[in-house]
Design goal:
Blueprint (H helix, E strand, L loop, with lengths): L1 H13 L5 H33 L8 H31 L5 H31 L1 H4 L4 H28 L9 H21 L2 H20 L8
Length: 224
């Protein structure tokens, strides 16, 4: 999805920056695509909680999954609506301030709800540290936290960029977009390619069951 957005962004930059279709396409696909990646992170945490036990989690796994997905849907809807109206305003040479504020509100809400998620993630890791940081488990936890922080960095950048307006310093210098929008998402994808959740999460499940297995497999003692 992001590739489509970047193609539209490239066409807008090289052919017609006021083309409404290019503008809507790039904003829609670049804004919406990372939301699915965020949902995958929520899902990973939910599976991880189920693997090590829910007593360490401040919320049930399903609640974490659906609360934050719903928040992302609301935030994304506001962003897409605001971006579309910005495109309409720009194509008609009108003031896009109101539409930009809608987009800004969606990004601010997304930053807020993801910050709450990061807090819950940190609290879970702290409470379940004896289980999730065992053996090589800390490697996957570091990967999960790193990918989550990169997604948050990307959202924070979009918030700062939108707050400056369409003619702001961040918006008019493509290097910031490449380093703080494109690169964080790519690196986060690479991280999960290297530390695939499907490979690592079952190991936490095995580690959580290990003490119980040891108890049931103790050598029986006999009295004479």
């Amino acid at each position: 999805m992001e590739i489509v957005g970047y193609i539209a962004r490239s066409l807008a930059a090289t052919k017609d920056p006021y083309n409404l279709i290019y503008f809507i396409l790039q904003y829609f696909f670049i804004v919406v695509a990372p939301v699915f990646f965020s949902a995958s992170i929520y899902t990973i945490l939910s599976f991880l909680i189920n693997a090590v036990g829910g007593e360490a989690s401040p919320l049930p796994p399903k609640a974490i999954l659906w609360i934050f997905i719903l928040c992302d849907i609301i935030a994304t809807g506001a962003q897409v609506g605001g971006a579309a109206n910005i495109g309409v305003a720009e194509s008609h040479r009108k003031d896009p301030t109101t539409a930009n504020n809608v987009l800004l509100g969606g990004l601010a809400f997304q930053c807020f709800d993801f910050a709450i998620f990061l807090s819950l993630l940190g609290l879970f890791i702290y409470r379940a540290r004896d289980k999730v940081l065992m053996a090589d488990g800390w490697k996957f936890i570091c990967a999960l936290v790193s990918a989550s922080l990169l997604v948050y960095l990307r959202t924070a950048f979009r918030l700062a960029e939108t707050a400056e307006g369409l003619n702001g310093f961040l918006t008019t210098h493509e290097v910031f977009f490449g380093c703080l929008e494109f690169a964080p998402v790519v690196v986060a994808v690479w991280i999960f390619a290297a530390f695939h959740p499907g490979k690592w999460i079952p190991q936490f499940n095995e580690g959580a069951n290990e003490p119980q297995m040891m108890q049931t497999q103790q050598v029986p003692t006999y009295s004479v």
